[in-house]
Design goal:
The chain is of the alpha+beta class. About 50% of the residues lie in helices and about 10% in strands. It has a five-stranded mixed β-sheet with strand order 1-2-5-3-4.
Length: about 260
């Protein structure tokens, strides 16, 4: 009996060892897992090949873009041919242009309208009196002489309308006379040099205002309040070394 039991134990041990040494594919549970791994390998290889192809295409497109100029990938703007306008559209455009021109003319007329006299002349200028004054503006210097008369203007032996064709400059020159009430009661003779047209008009105005204060000292407050006696010190700023103009710099280049 003891020998039979030992033989049975040995047979059981040998069977158990054989089961442990058998590969997992031989067992019933390991076979499906092995088949799944075998089926997944082709799919993984296909995905890797697709990824490599996409990377190659992206790299090729980037290399191609680097060779093209900036904006080459943008679609060109389609410009439609200009169609012929109808009679109604042409009439509407002409009416709009006329209305715009009329509005601009009205605005210019309002801006250039001469101011009304602020007061009447309080002092009568003697017929033999000659009042001299000097006015300055920018680079212009004007020597003004006032004497009794009917309001004639002479600038460098030329009429006011001839010397200052623009209405804006003529209004600027007459401003002190209109403010003081001496418009049409004194003759003005001016010698002016230096500067440009605008600077000379400002110099003439400054000189006339100074001459009027010599005629009537009571005018000083009103003329000063309107800024006609103030010497405008603004001048063109000098050019600096290394610059194109007073403030304008050359274009900066980093390389």
């Amino acid at each position: 009996m003891a020998e039979e039991e030992r033989n049975e134990e040995q047979s059981e041990e040998t069977q158990q060892g054989a089961r442990e040494e058998a590969p997992p594919e031989a067992s019933g549970e390991g076979a499906p897992a092995a088949q799944e791994r075998i089926s997944e390998e082709p799919e993984r290889e296909a995905e890797e090949s697709e990824d490599s192809q996409d990377e190659a295409r992206d790299q090729a497109s980037e290399e191609g873009k680097s060779d093209l100029p900036p904006g080459a990938e943008l679609e060109p703007i389609a410009i439609e041919p200009q169609r012929e306008l109808s009679a109604e559209e042409r009439a509407r455009l002409e009416a709009e242009a006329e209305e715009r021109a009329r509005a601009e003319a009205e605005a210019t007329a309002e801006a250039g309208e001469e101011p009304a006299p602020a007061r009447e002349a309080a002092v009568e200028l003697p017929s033999d009196a000659r009042i001299q004054a000097t006015g300055k503006r920018k680079g212009s210097i004007a020597r003004v002489v006032l004497h009794s008369g009917s309001g004639q203007f002479e600038i460098n032996r030329r009429a006011l309308e001839e010397y200052f064709p623009r209405h804006q400059h003529r209004t600027l020159v007459r401003q002190p006379l209109l403010t003081s009430g001496y418009e049409g009661k004194v003759d003005v003779r001016v010698r002016v040099h230096g500067g440009g047209v605008s600077g000379q008009a400002g110099a003439v105005r400054h000189g006339i205002a100074r001459a009027l204060t010599a005629i009537d000292p009571e005018l000083r407050g009103e003329l000063k309040r309107r800024g006609l006696l103030t010497r405008d010190a603004r001048v063109k700023e000098r050019r600096k070394a290394g610059l194109k103009k007073a403030r304008k710099r050359p274009q900066f280049s980093k390389r």
